[in-house]
Amino acid sequence: MPDFPTPDLSHLTRADFRNVYEPAEDTFLLLDAIEEHPRIALDDDRQRDRDWPSVCLEIGSGSGCVSTFVAKVVGRSNALFLTTDVNPHAARATRRTGEKNEVTLDPVVMDLASALLPRLRRSVDLLIFNPPYVPTESAEVASPSNLPAPLFSISASWAGGVDGREVLDRFLPYADELLAPGGVFLMVLLEDNAPEEIITEVRDRWGWTGRRVKERRAGRERLVIVQFVRGADVHVG
Description:
Blueprint: H1 25-36, H2 44-48, E1 55-59, H3 65-74, E2 80-85, H4 88-100, E3 106-109, E4 124-129, E5 134-135, E6 159-161, H5 166-178, E7 179-190, H6 195-206, E8 209-218, E9 221-229
Parallel strand pairs: 1-2, 1-4, 2-3, 4-7, 5-6
Antiparallel strand pairs: 7-9, 8-9
Helix pairs in contact: 1-3
């Protein structure tokens, strides 16, 4: 299996990163999980015959590093790589990062996935979310009740509210609407976000299988990548 380099972000400046989340340990842990994933990263022989994923969606794309990496790993020009971010600076950075690395990304400015339904209902094969997971006051969280005030605040990229779960908990119903039968959902959590509780909750609500696929200590925090897989026998009608 080939090694894939981290996307080139040399076009982004310190000024850009005053308004856009700069790739950090959580980003690189997610890249490692993607590169090691048996369905995403294939060897050359299997790559030629692949037809999955057809639709990839990243929520909160920030610099565009992750979706650019996914597009490189998937290696199919006929796949769709969609991204959303509540921050217009991030959407512009995502588009520029795709262009810099010669992949096509389609960034959209929106809150989570609010404008993608019902058009993409049960159509997303690969769903990725590195949510704002740091426990904070609720007032710091970007949400429909306090937009547009946090749109240009970098704190919206990491402020997760109570238990670091407010944005994630608000997104999970969207995930159920978006993820295709057999689809894969990768997300980043802190150990403090109670990953096992989330895995159990999602299993009980929708019957998805969930597990930790990668983890790493970063300073005082422990980062965890959780994978969910939706069953292939879900009615899409």
